[in-house]
Each structure stands twice: as C-alpha cells, then as structure tokens.
Amino acid sequence: MTLTVYLSGEIHTDWRQKLIEGSEQHKLDIVFTSALTDHEASDAAGDHLGVESDQFWRDHKSSKVNAIRTKTLLQNCDIAVIRFGDKYKQWNAAFDAGFCNALGKPYITLHAEDIIHPLKEVDAAAMAWAKTTDQVVGILKYVEKA
Asked: Quick one: how many helices (H) and strands (E) in the chain?
C-alpha cells in the first residue's frame, strides 16, 4: 500500500530529510509531500499578483496562495506529520493540525517534551506524539507494513 505523508511544520532543521532517509532505509512505500520550506519564497508567494505597500496585504495574499498548496496536499494525504520546533512559534503547523482534525485525517505530532503543555490540545487530537524522527519512522513502518 502506497502512503502519502504530508510533512508540516518547522523549516530550520533537517527532520524532513531524516524521515525520508529512515523510510528509504526500511524500503517503505511512501510518497512525501510538504509545505514550501523556502521561507523567502513562501513570503513572496503572492507577489506576482501585484506589489503591496502594506505588509499586511502582502502577507495576506501570500498566505492565501500558500493555502492553495497546503489545503490540496493535506486533503490528498493519508497521514500528516506535524513538527513543532523550539526556536520559533509554528502557528501554521497548529493550523494544519486543526485542519487535519476537521478533515478526519490522522496526524502525528513531533516535538520535544518541553513544549507538551502549550501543545496539549494539538497532541490530544493527534493519533501519536513522537519525540524523534526514528519514532515517526517506526509508526510509518507499522502502518505501511502491517
């Protein structure tokens, strides 16, 4: 069974690559999709629609263009992995988790123990919470091979 796994969340570490490599190591039949991980390109996603003098409207347009990608990929995935890092607040990742929950899409949260409390509602709706990419690979291995 081929699984489509959407990778959401922080973009400043190599967690996506570790998941992909771990899945390849176990020869898992998984197609990974992801949010745009180039911060500048994401911020500029709506710039081709016209120049804005107000940052709010630039961000507003770009977030809507980004949402076309995000919504489409989330609706078409089998499972989402949502990573919360410790350096920045990933409000978009929390939004993705809520969207998955509303769609009935299973998701796995990936984060350190020191942010359990602020993510308690997000974790409560998740099918699993993992602390490491190896744990996520183990879950994906079980789902894909079982």
From this structure: 6, 5
Exposed (0-12), middle (13-18) or buried (19+): which is 67, by Cβ within 10 Å?
middle
CB-based contacts of 85, cutoff 8 Å, min separation 6? 9, 10, 12, 13, 111
List CB contacts of 6: < 8 A, sequence separation 6 or more.
32, 33, 34, 73, 74, 77, 79, 80, 81
pTM exceeds 0.85: yes
pLDDT tens, residue by residue, 2-27: 999 999 999 989 999 999 999 999 99
Yes or no: say if 127 and 100 are a contact pair by the CB < 8 Å rule: no
User: CA torsion 99→102→103→109, rounded to 10°?
Assistant: 60
Beta strands in 12-122 (DSSP E): 30-34, 79-83, 107-110
Q: Which tokens belong to 39?
A: 């911060």
CATH level 3 topology of 3-145: Rossmann fold (3.40.50)
